[in-house]
Amino acid sequence: MDELLQERNRAIALLQAGQTVEEVASQLKRSAGWVRKWRGRFRQFGYAGLNGRSRAPNQVHNKTPVTLKEAVITARMVLEVEAESGDGLKYIGAPAVRTRLRKQDVSPLPSVPTIERILRGARLTRERKKRQEMPVVYPHLRPQHAHELIQVDIVPHYLEGGQRIACFNGIDVVSRYPTGHAYEQRRAVDAAHFLCRLWQEMGVPRYTQVDNEGCFSGGATHAYVLGRVVRLALAVGTELVFSPTYHPESNGHVERFHQDYNRHVWEDTYLGSLGQVNQQAERFFDLYRQSGHHSALNGDTPHDRHFQPPPAQEIPAVAESDAKLPLYAGHVHFMRRVSSAKTVRVLNVDWPVSAPPDTGVWVTLSLQPSEAWVRIYDQAPDVESRSCMDVHPFPLREPVLDRAAPQTPVDDTTPAEQSGVNSLPGEVQVPALREQDPESTPTSDERSVMAFPVQLLFLASLRLFQRTLAIPAALTNQRLE
Hints:
16 helices; nucleic acid binding; two-stranded parallel sheet
């Protein structure tokens, strides 16, 4: 018996003992009306009337009709059969069900949340497992000016008919200037195409932050993989930053922008093609860029804040090539969590780290023409007091070109003499956009804890020498044997 029921029984007992309504109310610290209410219930229904009653309305005027529920369930089952048989697309979620109902002229047309509620009630959906939040604090950048950090992410959507598309969005963290474009898929070539569009419109920032999608990272299969997007960022001169896995908060600005994008581009409308999506999105982007609603901008618009001063918007021609891009000197960063085995996974390789498990660390891959290193820090690069905890050699499987080398020969010396050992015949050299990191060369202390594979470096230099002087590979291999 709960406390409320005990209190009501006590009120009836006091009344039966001869006390007045006012005396009972004073003793129980209740109102006289409360005592009269339960006295009336007791006279009408006895002790059973002292139990609480449901406050739900007797009639629900906006209750979902049974016929509509049956139509939703039927549409879902038909989509499942088509997906299993291969006769249709493999989309069976609430958006696809709503599109099917719309084609069938079902009225009233239920919303996506209503369809999801009906499917859950019919047990046609799987319960989503809630991911446990881990108290990990990751090092992160703290940009103070525009053009320092642009965050990029993908939000999926469905066209009318159920076709899934990938909507790439990017936003400058400081100026809040956004851009975006929708693609049929989320391939590496699509990600590279969008990033080129973004840098041409918004300028090349110092850092470009992305998540760990395969189109950005190069996939999760091959060790030491340096994919198309990584090579593109190195060629352009921006430092790519990979967010922690399963931690969207680290990419919070663009994740928050997705909410505005979804509300203004996708809600209360039907979009049947990529052209319609991009046209609708561009209208929203134009309004957003000229809006002064951002409290952090103190009345300025994202457009005014972003283009004062104008950013560097030129990207090298080699970055827009469809061929495999060479490696250029530069840095690639990763925000990672230390595992229980005291390792961090970067480029599909587990690297030992001296930090305790469940610690957030900052990992930097530094590529130079003669060597490459993986350094693990406790803080992001814009923190002066950070310390390097571990250093590991990174095996180079191909030459790394110096971005500071001249694009064309300036005298009659050999190409190898003009650009060290990195310039290859017929390749365009990309001018440097900023000075090299003074930490690119390891200190004596760091070298003492590393065993760099000298043989691998020698072989890479030899192959580069072959290509420079056009020495037949068979002849060189014969001499080596």
